Amino acid sequence: NQQFRLAARPVGLPVAANWQLLEEALAPLEEGQVRVKVLYLSLDPAMRGWMNEGKSYIRPVAIGEVMRAGAVGVVVESRSPRFAAGDHVSGAFGVQRYWTGAADEKSGVVKIDPALAPLPAWLNVLGMPGMTAYFGLLEVGQPKAGETVVVSAAAGAVGMTVGQVARQLGCRVVGIAGGADKCRFVVEELGFDACIDYKEGPLGPGLKQHCPNGVDVYFDNVGGEILDAVLTRINMKARIVICGAISQYNNTTPVKGPANYLSLLVNRARMEGIVVFDYAPRYPEGVARLAQWLREGSFRHREHVVEGFEKFPEALLMLFEGKNFGKLVLKIAEA
Ligand code: NDP
């Protein structure tokens, strides 16, 4: 069983020396356990945070531990009544070719239906990013029909679903993304009302043009200067969903907070964080609603598939350079 383990904590962007590629023999199954052959690994911006020491919403990956990762795979051996060989499953299987463990309720291992959507989509719209978008927008953002919703990293995994859910609710939806191709995709394929290319120049004029009635909900995936720019355009009682701050994850200096935060005071607005895991008991509800929209054909998803287990370290970096176009997944075995 090949595994990527955390060898050392990174300073700034992760480098090769932060990883150790190990080979380990597979142990025989114990009663209640299953063995999963991992097919697709989810590469997530959050992985960078999990590599850091210190208190967070989840404990850090320990030095020498297999790197944490969400994944989908197929059960190849089972001594659990809950799963049979051949079942497709998702879970936190880690960056390794096989996962062996107790498949009880607590494990978080769940069956997925490849007939409903292709396997990589279970790491995207029907997986963790989709749940983040769905519950983060609805529960924290609380958008109403006719309001203006802005979302950053709009062509990415979370962003694409945020915008499409907002559109379903009858909101005006404006994306922010890097580059003309991503902006075109967001408007033409996903049906956003507009998309602003933040690499083209300052955001101010685009926000003014495309949010003529101001911003009611800002779903923030990136933090930094983009958050600051949107703060200058918010309406009374605006809701800012703090989902992530990818522009800050590889800082070697402290995270830069918003200079324009007094806009919250002036507009009696709020900023609130979301951690998707809090909604785990409600995932079935999110999956059902998103699957329904997928079936109706009005909803799109896009995955960026990189192939090869050994490519893990370099593929992860794509997220921080905007080189992924859609949800980034690593294919490590044939289904
Ligand atoms: P994406 O698929 O959106 O990929 C990351 C994208 O971020 C890149 O493609 C790039 O898009 C953009 N980006 C990278 N660096 C910068 C930068 N310096 N400034 C602006 N944009 C940048 O990833 P996800 O959808 O998986 O994650 C999006 C955000 O959601 C992350 O912050 C992540 O941590 C957060 N998240 C939070 C969760 C929670 O529970 N709170 C759960 C899941 C995700 P572009 O080319 O447009 O710049």
TrEMBL record:
SMART domains per the record?
PKS_ER
Report keywords, A-Z: Oxidoreductase
**What residues does the Enoyl reductase (ER) domain cover?**
12-330
Q: Does the keyword Oxidoreductase apply?
A: yes
Which InterPro entries does this chain map to? ADH-like_C, ADH_N_2, ER, GroES-like_sf, MDR_fam, NAD(P)-bd_dom_sf
Question: Mind telling me which residue stretches traverse the membrane in this protein?
Answer: none
A Pfam family of the record is ADH_zinc_N
The record's listing under SUPFAM superfamilies reads:
GroES-like, NAD(P)-binding Rossmann-fold domains
Cross-referenced PANTHER family = PROSTAGLANDIN REDUCTASE (PTHR43205), PROSTAGLANDIN REDUCTASE 1 (PTHR43205:SF7)
Name of the protein in question: NADP-dependent oxidoreductase
Question: What is the scientific name of the source organism?
Answer: Massilia norwichensis
